[in-house]
Amino acid sequence: MTEWPKPSAEKLLDIVKAAYEGKVVVPEFQRSFIWSRRQVEELLVSIMSGYFIGNFLTLDWYGDKPPFPPRIIEGVKEVNPKVLSTKYTRIQYILDGQQRITAIFYALYAPPIPLKGGKTPCRFFIDIEKLLTRKPGESVPEDAIKGILTSAAQDLEQAQKAVDKGTYVSFTMIANQPAAVEWLYSKQTYLKTKENQRKLLDYINIVHDFPVPVIAIDQSIGIEAIVDTFERINRTGTRLSTFDLLVAVLYPEVKLRDLWSLFEEEAGTALSLRANEVADVVEAEYLAKVISLSLGKSCKKTDILTMGKDNFARGWEKAKKAIIEAFKRMKEEYGVVDLKRHVPYYAMTVPLAALLLKIEELGKGKSFYDKLDMWYWSAVLSERYESSADTYASGDYNDTAAWFIENKMPSWIGSVSDRLRGEDLESSDSRSAIYRGVMGLIKLNGAKDFHTGQKVPLSNYEDDHLFPSSKFKDHPKVNPILNRTLIDKDTNSLKIKGAKKPSEYLPLFAKELGGEEILKEILKTHLISEKGYSAMKNDNIDEFLKARQESILEAARTKIALRK
């Protein structure tokens, strides 16, 4: 059993000064500094009160090959530009305590960057008069510590005047202990008695001599143990993703964040997304999961983190291409209207991409794609990925890949058609897989606009009610997908449709299109049958919903029937 080192006391400001010099860093996989002004103020109050602020966990590393990409504490390079060019034979990673160290650094060194929730930097001051009202055994008054935004010009000016007068002192002055002492005894004129001067000096010394318990672990425990330790101690805060941990495990041979940035550019171009939108549809760890599945492993974190650097490097380009192809297939073959809004389950991208790689490996036969499509629609219409997505992704990949070769259909797929009922298609939640899947069926059916007779433009569409909600608001089923379809935004904005009842707008569209028969053919592209059209003409929403349910159910069952 590993014997962990016991904590030793170190001065907090020694750690902060080492951060300024670039000797104390954080691992690249650490989250960014996320504290607000209020949180910094509370920490400063605790320090000035002499309260315990928690343990710090560090990793001491010697040599020129650090285990993780080191990242300078935020704000350091802004106040010490030379830090990036300085190399050390020993660096100290902060594994637990980054937010506290960065907060103290921010208050003392005043880097020109904003805190969370602000747009301009913040400067911190001590109200000396309020500080000295503290009674023994009490905390420093919260309003004795003041954070002032640089954008609050009047407040900042008043604070500076108070500094000149001697009623305020800035934390940037306290950072330099000799200068602070000189100011206290030679420049300020507010504190005239030696007793009050001594009291303030005590507070200055508290900041400089404040001890914190530091547990320093040695590099000999191994990278995996270090990563596991870091993850465990961060479970109460913002959890590290598998991608964050993989960044650490693959470094320095693989610089994963650089690869991901290149992927965002490439995927953005291929999928008509801005680079900064790619992360909205592709989680960073998806590509690693695709590689893991292709290696015969699972989507579990342990399998991903132990796949090996060589396996990852060999699989990255293929996984990248497969993820892009998976999203293209969703748009072109599965009717996904908008990748940012209508993907039934983003987690399905992982097994879909891995199965596309398997099909490529097997020779791209038509039967493989037919089975792939059947798997996709069965998963969507049964809402299979509603929970335990990684478990289903691993199982579905193995079972469907085996089906490609052995021709033995996974049992769950065979049962979906029998279990699918009309009431399953009554979702009114536009985020649900059923809702998005049915919208995909409508698109694949070639939905044409009621006014132009052309396919609904995907660059200018709306998901609209057929029976307007304003006129049928009391009906319990006015919002489900059965009463919705794709329509051109321009058509919807015209007075032809608007909030009219079907009996009012259908004749107008028939006239525009050149006859009722043409209108009925267009309605069929929206999975609205002759029976459904008749119900619309009579404003009979119940009969319409029943007829539309039958049409959509038939289209859905066609998708989950194996093609001969």
If you had to describe this structure to a student in words, what would you say it looks like?
- With 564 residues, the protein is of the alpha+beta class.
- It is 51% helix and 10% strand.
- It has 26 helices and 11 strands.
- The strands form 3 sheets. It has a 6-stranded mixed sheet with strand order 1-9-3-5-2-4.
- Helix 8 runs antiparallel to helix 9 and helix 14 crosses helix 16.
- It is elongated.
Question: Briefly, what is this?
Answer:
The chain is α+β, with helices and mostly antiparallel strands.
Quick tags:
six-stranded mixed beta sheet; 564 residues; single chain; 10% strand; alpha+beta; three-stranded antiparallel beta sheet
Give Rg in angstroms: 32 Å
Output the structural class. alpha+beta
Number of strands: 11
Strand count, sense and barrel status of the largest sheet are: 6 strands, mixed
- Mean pLDDT across all amino acids: 89
- Estimate the helix proportion, in percent: 40-55%
Terminal CA distance: 61 Å
Task: Estimate nothing, just give the exact number of structural domains.
Answer: 3
Task: Identify the overall geometry.
Answer: elongated
Report the total helices: 26
Low-pLDDT runs: none
Strand order of the largest sheet: 1-9-3-5-2-4
Strand proportion, as a percent range, falls in 5-15%
